[in-house]
């Protein structure tokens, strides 16, 4: 079992989402940029032109490379583009939460966390 000391530096929320979702969360104060020279942002704005590989890279960076991220929020319709990565992610920290967007309602049947909960309860 991991100690709380292993997770004490996880103090940020990362966001992978459409422009409206990311803008709203940045206005709420979740934005952070690491110190130079790398200056990594804790968010990625995704549109139709965004390559799937860029989304996968951001997801991997937020979930494995960055040790200061506690929660990764991702729009569900964007998570669908990298569903294989989201569904196979099992670590407790950072937690990955799928959220709805203005144009794409939340579908509990697609949510990887709810799928795991249902398996746990034998549904």
From TrEMBL:
Keywords: Hydrogen ion transport, Ion transport, Membrane, Transport, Vacuole. One of its GO terms (cellular component) is fungal-type vacuole membrane. It holds the Pfam family ATP-synt_F. The keyword Membrane applies. Coiled coil: none annotated. V-ATPase is a heteromultimeric enzyme composed of a peripheral catalytic V1 complex (components A to H) attached to an integral membrane V0 proton pore complex (components: a, c, c', c'', d, e, f and VOA1). Belongs to the V-ATPase F subunit family. Subunit of the V1 complex of vacuolar(H+)-ATPase (V-ATPase), a multisubunit enzyme composed of a peripheral complex (V1) that hydrolyzes ATP and a membrane integral complex (V0) that translocates protons. V-ATPase is responsible for acidifying and maintaining the pH of intracellular compartments. This is V-type proton ATPase subunit F. It comes from Trichodelitschia bisporula.
